[in-house]
Amino acid sequence: MSLPAAQPSRRSDVEPFHVMEVLAAAAERQRTHGDVISLCAGQPSTGAPRAAREAAAAAIEADALGYTETVGIRPLREAIAAYHRDLGVDDVSADDVIVTTGSSGAFTLLFLAAFDGGDEVWMTRPGYPAYRNTLRALGTSVVELACGAEVRYQPTVAMLEAERVARGAAPKGLVVASPANPTGTIIDADELAAIARWCDAHGVLLVSDEIYHGISFGRATSSAWQTSRQGAVIGSVSKFFSMTGWRVGWMLVPAHLRRRVAILASNLTICPPAVSQHAALAALGEAARGELEEHVETYRRNRELVQRRLPEIGVTTYAPPDGAFYAWCDVAHLTDDSARWCADVLAATGVAITPGIDFDPVDGHRFMRMSLAVASDELDEAFDRMVRFVGSSS
Q1: If you average pLDDT over every residue of the chain, what do you get?
Q2: Could you tell me the pLDDT band of residue 22, with boundaries at 50, 70 and 90?
Q3: Does residue 80 sit within a domain?
Q4: Burial code of 94-133, b = ≥16 C-beta within 10 A, e = fewer?
């Protein structure tokens, strides 16, 4: 008599990343109709900068493709340290940097190194769903702090202290993002510094997601490491550097966690992709800067276009798009089920947008996220189609 097959683990029972389902539906629509304008993916529509592609080709030609140091090649770590110094974080060295397989790899390694099963970790709602899902898969207790328009969809020290008092204890960790996905909002420098000091005072590991640094529009970004080195900063070449599929991220790691993270990385991933590290090194160089700044100018124009045209579909409430490349929009006047509504928009118009349920499991049914990281003429055409759709549905 054969034994029953092993059943899925309880830890694997996490919510799906719904945007991937939207992407699959958009791909099928493109196959059958060929008319899709995708505003759903959290990635630039542009490719890696030329300097990065040339460096990758050179690495392939030189056969520099074997295992690297687990924490990343030294020149890349030095370049990342210099990048953060240029952004105002003094005295960062290559030894502070661990290169990872995308920022997703950084979060997983950090969460494993810092938190045990049952530890409480706080994050914002709305927020990036992979924080929540990864933390829950690792057995932590996730508390989502409701951050609405009154606080610009970002946490404040007053909110954190009130939550600590109400719960009787501080958490083991706090995850923040600035600029944030899905809202694009930025935490003011003074507030982020105050949050870092609050975390230090209460023994909380601050995890600061800074992967959208470089993409901001008039409101300055700051880093948690400008105030304290007790937390961790996450970075990536995916967003500003337009290299999502190359899978290179990094973290600035506090000294007390550095060896634990490195040991975990050596066991779980061995090293980040070698060819991608050489490409990332080139992307961080001066040769790529002009090309990347042009992308930001496109996002700036698209931000203005979106703000001008959202009222044409009746959207008057949305998060202030300080940075990143998203518009987080309240569509409650159009639907009480944004997942269904976004599916209807795709079916009727070929425009793919993301429902809010990924980012806010409580109120996301009345929100959508729209990506601005496309060509401006495509974005304009997408609005033309949505205006017609909303008009025909009213």
Answers
A1: 96
A2: very high
A3: yes
A4: bebbbbbbbbbbbbbbbbbbbbeeebbbbbbbbbbbbbbb
Neighbours of 233 (CB within 10 A): 27
Inform me whether the pLDDT recorded for 251 exceeds 70. Answer: yes
Q: Quick check: is 6 in a domain?
A: no
- Residue 321 and residue 299 in contact, taking contact as beta carbons nearer than 8 Å: no
Q: Are residues 278 and 293 in the same domain?
A: no
pLDDT tens readout for residues 92-134 = 999 999 999 999 999 999 999 999 999 999 999 999 999 999 9
What CATH number is given to the structural domain containing 176?
3.40.640.10
Do 256 and 384 belong to one domain? no
- Expressed as residue numbers, the domain containing 144 is 50-287
Residues β-bridged to residue 343: none
Count of the separate structural domains present in the chain = 2
- Identify the sign of the CA torsion 264, 266, 268, 272: positive
d(CA 272, CA 99): 7
DSSP for 138-171, written as a single string: TT-EEEEEE--GGGTTS--HHHHHHHHHHHTS--
% of the chain beyond a pLDDT of 70? 99
